Amino acid sequence: MGEVDAAFIQDLEHRPKLAVIEAEGIPLIDLSVLNSAAENGAIKGLVSEIGDACEKWGFFQVINHGVPPACREKMEVASRKFFEQSKEEKRKVGRDEVNPMGYYDTEHTKNVRDWKEVFDAVVENPSVISASDEPDDEEVRLLLNQWPEYPPNFREACEEYEQETQKLAFKLLELICLSLGLPANRLNGYFKDQTSFMRLNYYPKCPIPHLALGVGRHKDGGALTVLAQDDVGGLEVKRKSDGEWILVKPTPNAYIVNVGDIIQVWSNDKYESVEHRAMVNSERERYSIPFFFKPAHYTMLEPLEELTDNQNPAKYLAYNWGKFMARRNLSNFKKLDVENIQIYHFKVKRAPSGVFFQVINHGVPLQRLKNVQSAAKKFFDQPKEEKLKVRRDELNPFGYSESDHTTTVRDWKEVFDITVEDPILLAASHEADNMEVWEWVNPLLSNKKLDDVGGLEVKRKTDGEWVRVKPTPDAYIINVGDMIQDFQLRNFKKLSVEKIQISHFKESKCNSKWRIWTLCNPKTGRDSYQNERHDGHASALPNYLSPVMVLLMAIIGKKNHGNSSMGEVDPAFIQAPEHRPNLAFIEDENFPLIDLSPINSPECFSSTKAKEHLVSEIGEACAKWGFFQVINHGLPLQRLENAQLAAKKFFDQPKEEKLKVRRDELNPFGYYESEHTKNVRDWKEVIDIAVEEPTLMFASHEADNTELTEWVNRWPKHPPEFRKSSEEYANELQKLAYKLLELISLSLGLPANRLNGFFKDHTTRIRFNHYPPCPIPGLALGVGRHKDGAALTILAQDEVGGLEVRRKTDGEWIRVKPTPGAYIINVGDIIQVWSNDKYESVEHRVMVNSERDRFSIPFFFGPAHYTMVQQQVEDMDLRNFKAGMHNYQNERLDGYAIQCAYCPHSSTKLPSTCPEKKNHSISPMEEVDPTFIQAPEHRPKFAVTEDEGIPLIDISPIYSPECFSNTKAKEHLVSEIGEACSKWGFFQVINHGVPLHRLENVQSAAKKFFYQPKEEKLKVRRDELNSLGYYDTEHTKNVRDWKEVIDITVEDPTLMAASHEADNTEVTEWVNRWPKYPPEFREAFEEYANEMQKLVYKLLELISLSLGLPASRLNGFFKDQTSHIRFNHYPPCPIPGLALGVGRHKDAVALTILAQDDVGGLEVRRKTDGKWIRVKPTPDAYIINVGDMIQVWSNDKYESVEHRVMVNPERERFSIPFFLSPAHYTMVKPLEELLDEQNPAKYRTYNWGKFLATRKRSNFKKLNVENIQIYQFKDSK
């Protein structure tokens, strides 16, 4: 979309909420009965479902709709290829005002630009439409599709898809007719010469998802819309019951259907067209394909006669669809001054009981209005001296004026008044006894006007609310007036009292509501009205000095402040109304002020009582406020004064001097004057200085980019003492920061130096802030509301003050009163995480001052760039971790980027794309082979269940000898493992010790391998003699899996039983088949395999301990292990409701360690109720599951649990399981130590090599029976 154009920004009330609501109630309707010889009852049930959905939601989803998955996939692929082209290629088929079909990227909805690109193609090619929106213009024109050259199958894909979607649209139309009690084909005739079209939408990643929309709120003007959306989602529907925006969760292979305006009109409002919009995403692109089903251009739309009667009269006037559509299309190439045409403009209305109403079809020729509008605009466009030539005066109030007053306040407008009767006779004076009349004559004019921007507001009689009168195309607004005369006094002077009103003539002492209206002198009794306005507000100037007036006066008096270093008042400074400062501030006397003198007196601090008291004060301040002030802190006053003086000298320089040390995108240290907080510009200028020079920092926020960069200070030449004073001050602040950090550690019950190590290579900085006088202190902020991303902030503010803190107890903004010689301390986000929310980082902001400069110096104490930020209170449960805190990488925190992974593990995501991807076919599975189809009872459900109860275990203690030697910590971890194995058979582990880069290297190599052409992969295909290598036709439970794999053993070669026959003792060697490409594949695999083995032995030992066995009890079985690693690739699947990536199964091995990407898809059968539970991906976690072998060894104490893998119609998925398997000669049976008379052996002994050889028989053929399972060795006794 290029630069972020201001045209994309939605008005405040229409901006999206990033915290979305998903409603399960949006109907999901199965249309399969239409594709079979269904009974009448089934059809009636379907019709009822459709009617209910149309009436309650106006939206529903359909599945089993009959549109071939291959047709949709072909269209989606072609769409993506088209949008991936350069802009100049796409613009070769750009639409224009003559033909609106083709590519476009600057569409507006409600006059705000949409964050999207589109391609439109009509179904009927060519399509006939109205040439213009003028009612008397009968000319028509042709719409012709513009077909791009690339991709070459684009046209074919579009036309095939349009035909299939059209069939579905007619089916849906007939069902809707039946639901309205009409014949099924009642509406079909309107679509004989249809104007339907298909749109391909592409929503690029958007850096401002909270300000922009892919498509703004709107209703569809057609009859029906049939939408295919991808798995990213983003469609939001305004729920009719409460007006909430509801996110429509993507359902694989479903279509979303919504009622359009035309069906609302035809049904006479029984079915309503519902407002909807499309959200944008900052991380992922989104694609969708709506099909807009629209009738012939000559169709006259009105409520159907069958659905109207005396009790339910027609609610809409008839309108022509072609003219309606032509008017709508006016906004394609220009931003309109009014809202586009809507069906409510044709709503039948009765004149309201009030005094305002609008009229349409009024008989006034449109051309007459346009002529006078044009003439008026020409008049007002003249220089002021020309307009003043026909200025009105006290003798004749007709003509030009620019200083009208209403209710004693001047109006922001210029006007030109003309009498209808020329001349006109009127009383010469308002005095009751003056009978003289005057002749008022229109001035001579060469030009004359009126416009349609809107802005009229009417005070509603029922509740006194001001109601905006929305402009209606070609309508006139009528209102009943009071009459004239005394009103003209306001034209030439601002009155000290309210102008005359009819309320002055109201009779209070008789039954009649009104006196006879004569023009008496209104001075009598006027005092009682002196400070009233008819809308209830004071009008006399002294009582009208609201904050807005104060601000306006400040702007008028701006020249008295001298030149502001912020330049002109940029609208970017203006805060949203709800975040604007209150000029009347609150100070709280209870704001903590803590005396630190004990820490500077060894004798005093050695006193346990004094130490405990100070630590308690610090802890209470952090918990209750998150802010406190400190005095007697030990920092020499001279150091602060030197730094302040140097900063002031720097800021006093001309702007061009300061810009010589301006920061940039490569190095965020130096001077800056246009910083934004919450997307609003701050009223300040700053210079940032790193305490450690140079400071090492990540070069990028990308998780897989480990490159570092050096941030170096830009030292200004003037004043010459700036560097020295900054460095001396920074050294003193560091000492204070460490003292405070130690006190905070103690208050959390930690050793004093518990946190110090994180600051070895710290990223701390000092900022010098200058807040110039601000002419709009009620609209702007020095710094908008925010929380500090670092660990601690130490702030020195001057006597002007302005810091405000949001009080935790009630959310009020509290002004922190400057205390001489004190520093203000606040807890940052990092301490909030370290303390696991015991101490919270609190929102704060900085007010500006209209009269005085303000200076402050914050010190942001930040840890080393490589710090992994997690809670430090040892008894905290990791599952308390906030789900939304997973990754704060490279967030903009107080002006520069800080790399901090806010989770107890780094975020590892398998990217969905890589450079090689363009060279491989979308689906290596080729045609949909019937062998993929699961039996009905085993097919996946689209409505998945995610269970937060699947254990997430932190195994970091095993890497800390000090911690693991702690009996309590060891027992707790072993207990967690045992409980997880017993209740779930599955768990996830974090802080596992596997280096992130090892996983990333092997993921990258695997993807490169799978993205090769199939013939390259088949060069390392496995066979019946050696089951290692590439394979794409594996079966589970005799049904083919939707996946391709490559298997590599850990031991190379691996010895294995040559045959499954019991009496065959021959062995064979399995040798890895290493692909030539990518060249790093083998090295990446072997390094990763080594790390996996380390982890798996640790887990095996924890499991042994949880069974009451020695830690090494099971290790001996793995001397000549047959373990292997599998790389899985699950391509997008067009039949996600019928196939599985891997069918339901249990792992035959001892343990499985799985790395899955962010797409997810693993489902586990919950032991308690047999439900399939989706295992939600946890960044950088491994999923562990108990295999059949541990089930046998534990004699069923720990069970191997059934699991499967779902497929995705839009996204490919990758995973890497490590299967721990013993030597081929291992005889597997329950362990003797776990058996007794009450718990005898439940399994007969079996040979692992023979068991595995039997399993492998299904690799190359579909068996007639289920493959071998451990239950076949179950002892029946």
Automatic annotation (TrEMBL):
Protein name: Fe2OG dioxygenase domain-containing protein
Keywords of this entry: Iron, Metal-binding, Oxidoreductase
Superkingdom of origin: Eukaryota
InterPro entries, per database record: DIOX_N (IPR026992), IPNS-like_FE2OG_OXY (IPR044861), IPNS-like_sf (IPR027443), Oxoglu/Fe-dep_dioxygenase_dom (IPR005123)
UniProt KW Transmembrane keyword: no
Short name of one Pfam family: DIOX_N
Fe2OG dioxygenase domain segment(s): 194-295, 762-863, 1121-1222
Organism: Escallonia rubra
Lineage: Eukaryota, Viridiplantae, Streptophyta, Embryophyta, Tracheophyta
GO molecular function: dioxygenase activity; metal ion binding; oxidoreductase activity, acting on paired donors, with incorporation or reduction of molecular oxygen
